[in-house]
Amino acid sequence: MSWQKSLQAAVKALRKEEQSLVKQLDQLRKKMGDLTGLSKGRKGASAGRKSGRGNRLSAEGRKAISLAAKRRWAKYRGKKSK
């Protein structure tokens, strides 16, 4: 029966070591993800690139840009015809 206890102790020690290694591996993966810009679940995405609608203009912003461009063109055409 002593060999069973020593076997159980060895299995317990191996499981503890496994948990430690899994924790270290998770930390390493997190650090690698931080360095490459990849997060868990976004494998293959380009580094530093956002997905979704993050950089879109509002309707007011598009209108303001459009009006400014029209004013610039009108000014340019006004000088050209003189």
What overall form do the CA principal axes indicate?
A: rod-shaped
The percent range for helix content is: over 70%
Mean pLDDT value: 83
* Helix and strand composition category: mainly alpha
Q: Could you tell me how far the N terminus lies from the C terminus, measured between alpha carbons in angstroms? A: 108 Å
If helices are DSSP runs of H or I spanning 4 or more residues, what is the number of helices? 2
Order of helices and strands: HH
Q: What's the count of strands?
A: 0
Which stretches are low in confidence, meaning pLDDT under 50 for 5 or more residues running? none
Strand content: under 5%
Overall number of domains: 1
Using the CA coordinates, give the radius of gyration: 31 Å
The main β sheet shows up as: none
What quaternary form is this? single chain
3D structure, described in words:
The structure is a single chain. With 82 residues, this protein is mainly α. It has one domain (2-38, 58-81). Helices cover 71% and strands 0% of the residues. It is rod-shaped, with a radius of gyration of 31 Å. The chain starts with a helix and ends with a helix.
Task: Report a brief summary of the structure.
This protein is mainly α. The protein has one domain (2-38, 58-81). Helix content is 71%, strand content 0%.
